[in-house]
Amino acid sequence: MDKLTPMMQQYMEIKERNADYILLYRLGDFYEMFFEDAKLASTELDLVLTGRDCGMDERAPMCGVPYHSVDAYIARLVQKGYKVAVCEQTEDPALAKGLVRREIVRLVTPGTVTDDGMLEGSKNNYLAAVLPDEAGFAMAFADASTGELSAMHLSEAGRVEDELARLSPREVLTAAAFPPPQGLADFCRRQLGAILTPLGGDKEALAAAAFGRYGKNELLDKGMDEAVCACVGLIVGYLEETQRTGELRLGEVRFIRQGKTTGLDLVTRRNLELTGTIVSGEKRGSLLGVLDHTRTAPGARLLRARIEQPLCDIAAITRRLAAVGELKDNERLREKLRQILSEVCDLQRLLTKVVYKTGTARELVAISATLRRVPELRELLAPCKSVLIAEQAAALDAAPELTARVGAAIVDDPPLTVREGGMIRRGYHPEADRLKDLVDGGRGRLVAIEAGERERTEIKNLKVSYNKVFGYYIEVSKGNVSKVPPDYIRKQTLVNCERYITPELKELEGEVLSAGDRLKALEYELFSEVRDMAATCAARIVGTAEALAELDCTAALAEAAQRHRYCEPEVDMGDLIEIKEGRHPVVERLLTDALFVPNDTHLDCKGGRMAIITGPNMAGKSTYMRQTALIVLMAQMGSFVPAQYARIGLVDRIFTRVGAADNIAGGQSTFMMEMSETAHILKNATKRSLIIFDEIGRGTSTFDGMSIARAVVEYVADSKLLGARTLFATHYHELTALEGEVDGLVNYNIAVKKRGDDITFLRKIVRGAADDSYGIEVAKLAGVPEPVIRCAKRVLSELESEKQRAVPRAAPEDEPDAQLSFSAGPAGALCTELAAIDVSTLTPLEALNRLYELQQRANKL
Question: Of 255, 240, 262, whose CA–CA distance to 112 is shortest?
Answer without folding.
Answer: 240
